[in-house]
Each structure stands twice: as structure tokens, then as C-alpha cells.
Design goal:
By secondary structure, the protein is mainly alpha-helical. It folds into three domains: 162 residues, Alpha Horseshoe (MgtE N-terminal fold); 101 residues, CBS-domain (Roll); 171 residues, SLC41 divalent cation transporters, integral membrane domain (Tetracycline Repressor, domain 2), CATH 1.10.357. 67% of the residues lie in helices and 5% in strands. The chain is built from 23 helices and six strands. Helix 2 runs antiparallel to helix 3, helix 16 packs across helix 17 and helix 20 runs antiparallel to helix 23.
């Protein structure tokens, strides 16, 4: 096998990130070597070796999809990120910015001039520009507005008027509409005149002269129907209709439940405004899941993985401060029972078991509740049934694992009463964890907050303090 073929095979087994990292390392090794040389050897910076390294890197980036480039930028330290960003083709800039997280997008936008930012939006649809708008400087958005045709300008204003968690924010204005009184042959001729169909087009929207939505014509029905058949004979009036003010999560649930590729968005009078497509919904679900995972630990989604230390500290200090307060509370609970611990030192060794199991059980309950809230599976009438169910689960787990811990304690300390106290404490703390594991996210939701926000921190704090208090109280009553 020739060296060229070996190289090609090795590249096929590498991810784009690995390939970029490897080429960056080659480039930086030569650059580092130059810095160690005398001034007479500075010509190496412009040598054919460095030019070849940069050419390989440029060639690789030119072949990558914008989503792959965004993934690479997310995974690189700031200095390397900006080097790669400067090599991305101008026509890819807008698409790459859309694919990156808000934090990384901010670093890339900071590195761009106003004219570059305006140029980047030229290759984007109006709904995509609306996604970028919150991160762009005001003067840039003013220039973008001026550069758009009047129709697209109004679409952009409409898209920007909806909150991020509304269907209107996910809406795509690129739709194909047809009339119900035309033949299939006419529709096919019309489609052939287009350069291409909008992405994820599985149906055409049938409207009247006032743009009122009458039904949809599925592409597969269009392809297999007789060319002389009227659209009205083949179209279906059974379809999912979304409204721009609907909660985006409801749309996501509908796409998952009915396996949709696209769905219409209409106003209160039935006029077609646009559509929502599955790729946008998937992005929304992924971003929401990532945010919830971070929120459970009290982290903000705005933090860049390679953000400066001070910025990361600012992002994390709030919940660490909350955790510190709860830790002080737990320490004072222990302090109240100092005399009991002095008389029976074994209590100090057994306390972490009660608190640890309680925290884990509470986190399991909270994860289930947050997921159910996201899927809108919980309402007021079912909340109490859910609390009863979780208490039942925790009671059974408490009896089983409390018995195991009690026997373990008896085997080590040869004290049946201490083992019984451990069993009772385990049951009570798991019941407490179940109750609060349901109430904490429900309460946050009732006050209009994200039910995942800091829930993990709060349940751990409660089960620690509560577990210590329950165990030490029982020990004081029954053992001392």
C-alpha cells in the first residue's frame, strides 16, 4: 500500500475534530520551532512547510459541513478557535454561528467586524437571522434590516416578536402553497420551475386566495396520483395546526407523538403564516435537554467550555453560595447533637449513609418529575396521585434498603437497637426525599421558574440536613 493510500485510510478513521487537532499541532510545532531560532531563520514562518500545513487545514475545513465546523470550534481553546474561525469560508459564517452555543457564538461575533456580520446574514433565511438577532450588535441589525427586501423585513420583525419558547420563534417562512382547484400536472410543472424544494418538504400547503389554510397535499400522494386529478380530490384536511403563540415544547411533543416532518403555523383567523420543521424541533429539544442538565446542577447555559476563569466563576458562584448556606445549616444540625455523638461515636460513621442514599433517591424522583413536566404529563389533579405513588416507592425502598443497612450495622457494632435506628432513619429520609423531590420542581413551575433550576442542589441540601436530624434524633431518643 502506498503512503498516500495509508494517509487517506488513516484520515477516514479520524473524526473531523481529530483531523483538525492533528493539523493544528503540526502547524504550531513548526511555529514553536521558529521562535527558538535566530532571526536569520525567521523565513521558516513563510516556508513551504507552513504554507502546506495551512493549505491542508484550509482544504479540510472547506470540505466540512457547517455543523462539523461548529462542533470543532466548541471543542477548541480560544486561541485555536479564532485561528480556525478566520479560515472558515465567508459563505459558511452564518450557518456556523447558528450551530454554535450562545457562549461560543459570542466569542466568534466579538472577533468579527460589523461588515463581516452583515455579510454573514446574506446567506441566511429570515427565521435564521431572527435566531442570531439577540447576539448581534444593534447597529449590525439595523444594517441587516436595511439590506432586506420589504417582505423579508416584515417576516424578520414578526419572528423577532415571539419569545424564545414560542412556536413563532421556531417558524420557517419558506413554504410552498398551491390552490385546490388546479390539477396535479400543474402542480408538478410549478415545482419543476423551482431551483430546489425547501428543506424537509413532505407536504404542500393548500390555501385559498386569502391565504387561508384549507389542507395539505402530501408529496407521496402527488407523485403517485393521476396528473389530471384535482388537488381538492387528493389533499387531506386532517393535519396538525400550530399557532405562533403556542409553547414550543407542545410543538415538540406533537412532532414526537405523530412522527411529523413538518407542520403548519396559522394565525387566529386560519391564515397560513409559515411552518415548523423537524430539524428545528430536534435542535430545540437538544438545546432544552442540555440546559436542563446544566440547570439541575445550578449551572448556566451561557458558559463556554474554555471561558476565562473569572467568567466561569461568575457563572457558578450563586449556587455554590446557596450550597454553602445549606452546608452551614447541616453542620448546625449536627452541632445540636454533639453530646449524642460524643457518647456514641458510631453515629458519626453512619450519618453519611443516611444522607447519601436520601440524596440519590431524591435526585431520581426530581429527574422523573422534571421530565414529566417537560412532556406535560402532570397537571393539578394528578400531582397528589404522583406524590402518593413516589411515597409508596420510597417506602418500599426504605424498608428493603433500611433492613440491609440495619443488618450491616448490627454485624459491625453488634447492637440491635442501633441497627433498628438505622432502618427507621433510612425509611423516614427516603420518604422525605420523595415528598420534596415532587414538591420542589412543582413549586418552581408554579412560580414560573424552570423546574430543573437548582433542583439537584436543593434536594441534596434537604436530604442532608433532614437525614442528619432524623437519624440523630432517633439515636438520641432510643439509644442514649
Amino acid at each position: 500500500m502506498t503512503e498516500a493510500k495509508k494517509k487517506d485510510n488513516n484520515e477516514n478513521f479520524q473524526t473531523p475534530l481529530q483531523q483538525v487537532t492533528y493539523l493544528l499541532r503540526k502547524y504550531k510545532l513548526v511555529e514553536g520551532f521558529v521562535h527558538l531560532q535566530d532571526t536569520a531563520d525567521q523565513a521558516l514562518t513563510e516556508s513551504s512547510v507552513q504554507k502546506q500545513n495551512l493549505a491542508e487545514l484550509q482544504s479540510l475545513l472547506d470540505r466540512l459541513h457547517p455543523a462539523d465546523i461548529a462542533h470543532i470550534l466548541e471543542a477548541l481553546p480560544l486561541e485555536d478557535r479564532l485561528l480556525i474561525w478566520g479560515m472558515v469560508k465567508a459563505e459558511y459564517d452564518g450557518d456556523v454561528l447558528l450551530e454554535t452555543s450562545d457562549a461560543v457564538r459570542a466569542t466568534l461575533i466579538t472577533d468579527m467586524g460589523n461588515q463581516e456580520l452583515v455579510a454573514a446574514t446574506e446567506f441566511l433565511d429570515t427565521d435564521e437571522i431572527a435566531d442570531l438577532a439577540p447576539d448581534l450588535p444593534k447597529d449590525v441589525m439595523d444594517d441587516v434590516f436595511q439590506s432586506l427586501p420589504i417582505t423579508e423585513r416584515e417576516q424578520l420583525r414578526a419572528a423577532m416578536s415571539y419569545p424564545e419558547d414560542a412556536v413563532g420563534a421556531l417558524m420557517d417562512f419558506d413554504v410552498i402553497t398551491i390552490r385546490e382547484d388546479v390539477r396535479m400536472e400543474v402542480v408538478l410543472r410549478y415545482l419543476r420551475r423551482l431551483d430546489e424544494l425547501p428543506d424537509h418538504t413532505d407536504q404542500l400547503f393548500v390555501v385559498d386566495r386569502d391565504e387561508q389554510l384549507k389542507g395539505v397535499l402530501l408529496i407521496n400522494r402527488l407523485l403517485v396520483s393521476d396528473p389530471d386529478t384535482l388537488v381538492s380530490d387528493v389533499m387531506t384536511e386532517e393535519m396538525i395546526k400550530l399557532h405562533p403563540d403556542d409553547v414550543a415544547q407542545q410543538a415538540a411533543n406533537a412532532f414526537e407523538r405523530y412522527d411529523l416532518v413538518s407542520a403548519s403555523v396559522i394565525d387566529a383567523h386560519g391564515k397560513l403564516l409559515g411552518r415548523v420543521t423537524v430539524n428545528i424541533v430536534i435542535d430545540f429539544i437538544r438545546e432544552k435537554a442540555e440546559n436542563e442538565a446544566l440547570n439541575l446542577a445550578g449551572l448556566s447555559a451561557e458558559e463556554d467550555l474554555f471561558a476565562p476563569v473569572l467568567k466561569s466563576v461568575k457563572n457558578r458562584w450563586v449556587w455554590l453560595a446557596v450550597n454553602l448556606v445549606t452546608a452551614f445549616i447541616a453542620s448546625r444540625v449536627i452541632g445540636v447533637f454533639e453530646d449524642s455523638i460524643e457518647k456514641l461515636v458510631a453515629l458519626a460513621a453512619l450519618m453519611p449513609i443516611i444522607a447519601g442514599i436520601g440524596g440519590n433517591s431524591g435526585n431520581q424522583t426530581i429527574t422523573m418529575i422534571v421530565r414529566a413536566l417537560a412532556l406535560e404529563q402532570i397537571d393539578t389533579s394528578s400531582a397528589w396521585k404522583l406524590i402518593a405513588k413516589e411515597i409508596g416507592v420510597s417506602a418500599v425502598n426504605g424498608i428493603i434498603w433500611g433492613t440491609v443497612v440495619g443488618l450491616f450495622t448490627f454485624a459491625i457494632y453488634q447492637s440491635a437497637s442501633l441497627g433498628l435506628v438505622m432502618t427507621m432513619a433510612m425509611i423516614l429520609n427516603l420518604l422525605l426525599a420523595a415528598l420534596l423531590g415532587v414538591l420542589i420542581p412543582l413549586t418552581l413551575r408554579k412560580f414560573g421558574r424552570d423546574p430543573a433550576l437548582g433542583s439537584s442542589v436543593m434536594i441534596t441540601a434537604v436530604t442532608d440536613s433532614g437525614g442528619f436530624f432524623i437519624f440523630l434524633s432517633l439515636a438520641t431518643i432510643f439509644l442514649l
